[in-house]
Amino acid sequence: MGEVTTIVADKKGLANLDVFSSTLQELASTDKQILVVTSDSRGSGKLVPFGQKFPAQHIEIGIAEQNLVGVAAGLASTGKKVFAVSPACFLTARSFEQIKTDVAYSDNPVKLIGISAGVSYGALGSTHHSLHDFAALRAVHNLIVVAPADNFETEQAIRLAAETEHPIYIRFGKKPMPLLSEENQDFEFGKGRIICEGDDLVLIGTGETVYPALQAARQLETLHGIRSTVISMHTIKPLDYALLTNVASKGCPILTVEEHSVFGGLGEACASFLMTNGFRNRFKIMGFPDEYTVTGSQVEIFNHYGLSEDGIAKEALSLL
Predict the structure, then answer these.
(1) pLDDT tens for residues 195-215?
(2) Per the database record, which ranges form the Transketolase-like pyrimidine-binding domain (predicted)?
(3) What is the pLDDT of residues 24-38, one digit of tens each?
(4) 213-224, pLDDT tens digit by residue?
(5) Hey, where are the domains in the chain?
(6) Strand, coil or helix: what is 194?
């Protein structure tokens, strides 16, 4: 079996939304160009402290997501650094026309923040699940699409977004996320993050699926001696084609894991690149199938669809 070179932490982390809020407060304290626009979402977006500290830099639109994006685009066109915050399920579906035309096509550098993404609102049912956002927004040109996996990636993504003159969509879940690695690494949109390395299998996750993928890698090594490369592909678009080429060239199987439909997300993006460039690695996409999604907590839904440590390990063994 291949060698592994990594230092992996399991330090308890905060919810990425808490890190988003604290980082934004720090940035806003010295940059008055930063504005936050919300759609009755300051509570769920952890932005009550921001509004209290910086009332002149916070704009409340109410439950009107299309207006939210339009107002954010207008403000960004004047040079403001605008973070438009709303539940991902509504932001990316109800406001799709505004994201496409007012933000991306018009090149207004709005930072679109989709909160409680994936099945974070699991108990509220399919209307509140955002399992379509990668697919929809990958098809819109001039838009970066990001899903941070842990607190490190979240902080770095928000700092970089604040200084990036480009439209960006960043999605966050709700639960506390352990730090994936003790190693300080550079963070760049479009560059995946290698969490650990092995020569037998490649596990590629994004957002809150990276940690269960890492847990599965540990289980596979402990029980079966299988050593995996685990990648946090935090940027869905632009995808890190150089990293994909590097890991696929070793010939081992590749398993992608995402809190999204199996259609149009991380897995299909990876598969499309690999197939069209001549790679023939054994390959599997793990995500949500084409059915009415079950209702429950995020953990219950992950377990139901196999997006858990045991489920990913089982799928990996089948692929191997």
Answers:
(1) 999 999 999 999 999 999 999
(2) 14-179
(3) 999 999 999 999 999
(4) 999 999 999 999
(5) 16-171, 193-319
(6) strand
Which residues have C-beta within 8 Å of that of residue 165, sequence separation ≥ 6? 109
Q: Do the domains at 16-171 and 193-319 have one common CATH topology?
A: yes
| Cβ partners under 8 Å of residue 275, min gap 6 | none
Cα separation, 134 vs 107, in Å, equals: 19
Name the packing angle between helices 151-162 and 16-28 (round to 10°). 30
Q: Say if residues 231 and 193 touch (Cβ distance below 8 Å).
A: yes
Give the model's pLDDT for residue 185: 80
CB 67 within 8 A of CB 59: no
Taking phi first (over 0 means left), then psi (-120 to 50 degrees means alpha), and beta for anything else, what does residue 139 get?
Answer: alpha
Cα 87 to Cα 84, 128, 192, 281, 293: the distances in Å are 10, 8, 25, 37, 18
Please give the Cα distance from 103 to 113 (Å, whole number): 13
Q: Which of 195, 206, 226 is nearest to 314 (CA)?
A: 226
CATH topology of domain 193-319: Rossmann fold (3.40.50)
Cut 0.85: pTM above it = yes
Q: Tokens 């990036």, residue?
A: 164
Give residue-wise pLDDT tens across range 219-238.
Answer: 999 999 999 999 999 999 99
Architecture of the domain delimited by 16-171: 3-Layer(aba) Sandwich (3.40)
